[in-house]
Write a structure and sequence with these properties.
Layout: H1 2-5, H2 12-30, H3 37-59, H4 67-87, H5 95-120
Helix pairs in contact: 2-5, 3-4, 3-5
């Protein structure tokens, strides 16, 4: 999925639609239960780390003996971080409230990735 997000086929309109859909998902889930600011910050930072790991994975030469291991770590670490974050979510009496909190964590992780990746690849307005 990240390969498509960073490819030329994923144009600005598709990225904008994905960001808007994610914001709608977060807003809808927040009407059921609201996520705390600490969880929002951790989720955003996980998204930023996903971008940084993908960026560093592209910089490692394929001939490097650690390239495959770093590629695997770059895919596994964010998943483990999200699962750990889901484990620390506050207990809710209704299961759909915990699901809504999990959706918000996932959405804010995606927003963190979107913001950093879009900002890094935007066109400069002024040429120096």
């Amino acid at each position: 999925m990240l390969e498509y997000w960073y490819s030329e086929r994923c144009n600005r309109q598709i990225k904008l639609m994905a960001i808007i859909a994610t914001c709608i998902l977060i807003y809808t889930a927040s009407t059921v239960a609201q996520l705390g600011p600490v969880f929002v910050a951790v989720s955003l930072s996980i998204g930023i780390v996903v971008h940084l790991l993908h960026h560093f994975r592209l910089k490692i030469l394929k001939s490097n003996p650690y390239a495959n291991g770093f590629s695997a770590l770059g895919r596994v670490i964010p998943i483990i971080a999200l699962i750990t974050l889901f484990g620390y979510l506050p207990e809710q009496h209704e299961p759909w409230k915990k699901f809504a909190l999990g959706l918000q964590c996932f959405g804010f992780t995606a927003i963190g990735l979107f913001i950093v990746s879009v900002y890094e690849n935007h066109e400069k307005r002024f040429k120096e």
